[in-house]
Please model this.
Amino acid sequence: MAASPLILASASPRRHELLAQLGVPFTVVTAGVTELEDPAADPRALVAHNAALKADWVAARHPQAIVLGADTTVFLDGAVLNKPSDPADARAMLRRLSGRTHTVFTGLAIRRAADGLRREADATSEVTFLPLDEGAIEDYLARVHTLDKAGGYSIQDRGDLVVAGYRGSYSNIMGLPLETTKQILTQCGLLS
Model:
């Protein structure tokens, strides 16, 4: 039996670039869903829910494919920091993260509707920010489009301006933990 095609259920260009590094052919189908964005939600539950929501939606429309859904969020002081709603929200997030360590959570969900294949995984990393004054925040926002990034920042895009260091998976902070993704795709027979 031929291997099932892989679909990435994400519009994120970062996830597309990261998944391509694993050398598995895939296509992209963006899920038509409304993600849970409750700032008071448990971050692990939130990313697991959103990853499954995306994977389930795409798998229902492509039942023979193996579908990978992913979701990433930033967590600090008991609150989830999703994508900023506007530049003022991005500024507020950067002020909150300034000089502190936060956690980045990613949930992964694999689905194949044809045979009921279901797998879940998650990853966490910690990121420590540099102390940022208003000038540093404005400089960063002038250089980086932050409205499509959890926490209002991007470690791979001028991260040197805001990030002092990190622990854990760098690719997780970008939005797709490659080590965990490779494990889950190997379990599904797409990698050896």
Observations:
- The domain at 6-187 is CATH 3.90.950.10 (Maf protein).
- The mean pLDDT is 94.
